[in-house]
Amino acid sequence: MAIINTPLAAGKITFKNRLIYPPITIAKASPDGKVTDDSLAYYQDKMRGGAFSLAIVEHCYIMQQGKASAGQVSIAQDDTVPGLAKLARVIKGAGTRAVLQMNHAGSCTTPEVTGMELKGPSPVMNPRQGGVPEEMTKADIARVVDAFADAAVRAKAAGYDGVEIHSAHSYLLNQFYSPLTNLRNDEYGGRLENRIRIHLEVIDAVRKAVGRDYPLFLRLGACDYLQGGNKAEDAAAAAKIFEDAGIDVLDISGGMCGYVNPENSKPGYFGAESKAVKDAVSIPVISTGGVKDPEDVEALLEAEIADLIGVGRTVMKDSQWAERTLNFYRK
């Protein structure tokens, strides 16, 4: 049997195959972040046939100041739970597990979107988006940590099978992780262990809020692909710390250059970084990026760059791609 069709047991969660629908922003939420009928219809279309083992719902903002863009889904208040529950039922009703991604944009947004001032680790312009944020105080950091925990409780109440902490694509936690945007001189800046201190606080707070047995994912913007930024060895070192802190699955993507790799456009273009992380940890690793053909998935799995492969933008264009791909390997 092809690897793509083989199950993977990962302690708290079992994957029926190795194909993942990754978190992709579709910007179909209402102005106040509620799930809409258009949102439900989109996911219903993409999940038809239950081909994916798991779907990770697009990043949901945990507080108004962390909203990234118009049309983004909110998990910042209790009144978002009913709509999010409907979305979970759509995904799970197709036979696919559902995980919700939680996010704070930090400096990768605008006051026009949030109605509030920009906040970030340091007063440094974000490489992906203009604007210099106000440096976060320790009280600001504590509020963000609490907001992640509250959001995880809402996701669990809405019926999701797990949550994913977003630390990629130049958003807030990625800004702390990257030496390009974190110039702090306190315990949250400097060496790698300090730059991921906020991550460990979030992990601990979420664990306490939802329990030890609830699956917890983390998406890491492994490399920045910019001079002075993070490299694969930094991602591997951080990944090991995250595993020890209680993360169940690591989801590897890009950092300050977003969801693209300016140095590689081949299928699985975060493969080198994913491989470095996979070699450093014993928990499952998801890799995404540029997969277009059925053969791409199996080749990446055979190369052992990751345990699970995410395919999103190809599926945005072709809703039947995942089902066709699995059937291709069943022949």
From TrEMBL:
GO MF term set: FMN binding; NADP binding; NADPH dehydrogenase activity
Entry keyword set: Flavoprotein, FMN, NADP, Oxidoreductase
Positions of the NADH:flavin oxidoreductase/NADH oxidase N-terminal domain: 6-324
Pfam families membership: Oxidored_FMN (PF00724)
Record-linked InterPro entries: Aldolase_TIM, OxRdtase_FMN_N, YqjM-like
Cofactor(s) needed: FMN
SUPFAM superfamilies recorded: FMN-linked oxidoreductases
Name the record gives this protein: NADH:flavin oxidoreductase
Highest taxon of the lineage: Bacteria
